[in-house]
Fold:
Amino acid sequence: MNCQLKLQTKNPRTARDRLEVLVEQTGWRRDVKRAFDVLTASSGLLLLSPVIGLTALAVRAALGKPILFKQERPGKGGRAFTVLKFRTMRSAQSAGGRPLSDAERLTTAGRWIRSLSLDELPQLWNVVRGDMSLVGPRPLLMKYLPLYDEFQARRHEVLPGITGWAQVNGRNAVTHEQRFVLDVWYVDNWSLALDARVLWKTAYTLVRRSGIASPNHATMPEFTGYSSARGSDEPAANGID
Structure:
């Protein structure tokens, strides 16, 4: 199966509203966003290098090698790229081959790293490379692409982000369906001012350390493609690292 996402053009907004959004997302505004991303991410990698180094040592001591978690995720247009994170979990299976839940896999050090969002720091390199932006819908899993409906797929019309509108409005404490609504709202209402607002609210969210996990889950339950409006199934045990 081709995992490349075929984006739809249908939009619940009026054609005139959509045209205004497309104009807003191109030209000098997009160039300013990209320049800000590169400058901020590069500066962050330099200024936060002591924190990145200490986090790497903590992961090495708690989990051994490899230090980084690498996984293909869908970016703009559904194109795959390799997302980088610090590892916070053990192997997905026990020594006897039994599948482990996220709660069992997550280490004490991993919980601490996640609570401070230090596991996301390597994604600054993804921003420098152009795979991601500082602000945008979070990149989820490649296997979700064929599960999205037409509306949900629109979250891939922009670059994914380290933080986003959904992250400052509930983070992992909201359902997948609620997150997708927030993601598409960001796509339709993007502006430089909105990005600045998201970054400011992200700093506040990090200080509060809120929404790190979904209720009754160590991380985020798996998306099955069924919304609550259509009768949701029980979520799978393993979510997203």
Summary: Residues 1-12, 228-239 have pLDDT under 50 and may be disordered. The chain is about 40% helix and 10% strand. The first strand starts at residue 68 and ends at 74. The chain has one domain: 15-215.
